Each structure stands twice: as C-alpha cells, then as structure tokens.
Predict the structure.
Amino acid sequence: MTRVSFDYLRQQPSGGSCVSQAWARVPEALGPHERRALREQLTTRLRSGEAVLIAHYYTDGDLQDLALATGGCVADSLEMARFGRDHPAQTLIVAGVRFMGETAKILSPHKRVLMPDLDATCSLDLGCPADDFARFCDQHPDRTVVVYANTSAAVKARADWMVTSACALSIVEHLKREGRKILWAPDKHLGRYIAEQTGADMLLWQGACIVHDEFKGLELELLRRAHPGAQVLVHPESPAAVVAQADVVGSTSRLLKAVVEGSADSYIVATDNGILHRMRQLAPHKTLIEAPTAGSSATCKSCAHCPWMAMNALQGVRDGLDAGRGEILLDETVRARALVCIERMLDFTARTQPSAASGLVPNIGAA
Ligand code: 13P
Ligand code: SF4
C-alpha cells in the first residue's frame, strides 16, 4: 500500500501542482491465478444482473474489460452519467473517482451506487472546497456559476450549470450568446481554453489536475519533431503550451474517436495513460506515443496516471457486491440542489450532442 498526502493549499499560490502531493492507496496486485478466478467470478455475478459496472477510460484494463463483457460501459464522465441514469439496474458500480459516483447518485437517488474505493478523489475536487467556493461565488453575484464535473456534490449545489470536457465549449458558447458573464471552477487550464475559444468573460478558479498539469510544452515540441507524421491529441486540462500544439483537443471520448477514425498511423497522446488500453483495443495497428511529462523544463517526473483512478481494482468490485462496501450516500438537500445544474447540462446535451463523442474540438492554432 502506498500513501502520500495531498494538500490543496500548496496548489494555490502559484497555481501549480505536483503529483508528489497526491494521496492515494494503490491496491495490492493479484497473482495471475487469483486475478483470473476473480474476473470469472465477477463476470458471472455481473451478467446475472446483480449490478452494472460503469468504468472510466483511466481505470485499470481489467475493470474496463469486465465492464464491457458484462453489459456495462467504459466511457467519459458525461457518458458515464447518462449510462448510469438510463440503465435499469438497481445497483451501479462506478469505477472512477468520487465525483463520478456522486453524479450517478445525484441522478439516481433510488439506486444503490457503489465505488471500488470511496477514497478515490480528484485534485480538482480537493482543490475546490465548498465553503471557499461559496465565498468566491458570493463575491461575484452577477456571474453565472459554471462548474466542471470534477467537483463535490456540495460545490455543484452552488452552481447554475455543470459541464464536462465533452460539452463545456458548447455550453459556454450558449451562455455567451445569452450575454452571461461566467464564474468558472475549478480547472484553470480548461477554463482558459474555453475562454480563448469562445471569447466569453470568464472569471477562473485556479485549480489544476495533477496529472495533466505535468505535460510539458518544450518536450512535446521535441517529440513532434521526432515523429513528424504523428497527430497530437490533448485533453484540455493540459497547460496552454501543450494545447497550442494539438491537432485535436477534447474529452477522453473525443481523443479515442480521433485515434480510431484518424487517417494518421501514429498519435501522441496527452492524457492519462489509462486510456491507451481502450485505444489499443479499438485501433490495434496504430502507434500510440505518450506525451512527455518530464524533461529539461520539468520540476519532477510524473507517470501520467491518476493516482486516484489507480485505486480502482477488481477487489473493490467484489467487496461492493459481497458487503455493499463503498456506497455513496448524500445529504438529500445537497443532492436535490446539485441535481439542478446536472440536469441543465443533460437537457442541453440531449438537444445538441446526443453522443458525447461528438464533443469534437478542432484546435485552430494547431501546428
Ligand atoms: P472526461 O470528462 O474527458 O472523461 O475527463 C474526466 C477527467 O477526470 C479527466 O482527467
Ligand atoms: Fe482528477 Fe486529474 Fe485524476 Fe481526472 S486525471 S480524476 S482531473 S486528478
């Protein structure tokens, strides 16, 4: 078991962040026989309809495969929310991070929502405590409050709109057309990118994802020179110098679609490397190159893998099924308030982008 502490206050003054400040508990690796036996046992139980498994692309490949083999899904955070809401199963197992489980519970209060590890959180969520955020909102009552999905239920309860990276651009465009000024939280990189693309007046909370914040612009330039034919795919939680070099900027689903449908043979991928599992499955003949997280401009070497996503394992799914461990429980007042901003997003995307994969964001400034 590995534990290191995360202190969001250390993230604030410079706006920087560091993977070494992340708190995580990585599950014990199973031996090959134990792993196979557990996969088989869970496959049988999930196929029997005991629960449905909803996994994010950044989780362990075993969990992704189990979800797909048993009628669940592997998706981005918008699709996960839609899938959980619409699926008839009364128990949802959400493999991902806490805000994903909370979103599922907010949308389906009468379902039991379990997570393989309830302590799997997110630096954006940790870096935006509800009380501090409420004070920030109180100081700017003239602004429409738009929060990223990667926040707690209490922060969502204070928001007018929730967005994910698959729909943030179109929702902010819509709000700008309505003449709204926006208060945005928590991801400063995504906020800056959306403000640049839309020209909207956006006041930004200064949070960052400890994984994407580590991608390096200078080293990416050098890597691109070494692979001149490669397309560069970037999640918009990455720094500006990285986004500026992208051929495609978008949600995890969008980046996956770019690899599957793109005409290039090779792709440099600037997002959590957990997504490579699904990319390799869907595009086995393409070459995938991880974007650099270290080099001469680096302050440390990150592994480009979210420490909290890494807390999800088959054992957690078993413990949920066996003993109901990892259940998401929410205060009903908070849940009902948080539902408003999520439903607004889901209603909007149902009208404008029936599939999250349509969150295509071609990068105008791409090299
Ligand atoms: P997506 O909404 O693109 O799945 O991203 C969620 C996330 O946490 C990215 O780091
Ligand atoms: Fe949060 Fe970053 Fe992990 Fe996504 S990758 S869950 S934004 S810490």
In short: The CA atoms of residues 133 and 139 lie 10 Å apart. The pocket of iron/sulfur cluster (ligand 2) is lined by residues 97, 122-124, 150, 209-211, 237, 272, 306, 308-309 (CB under 6 Å). The first strand starts at residue 52 and ends at 56.
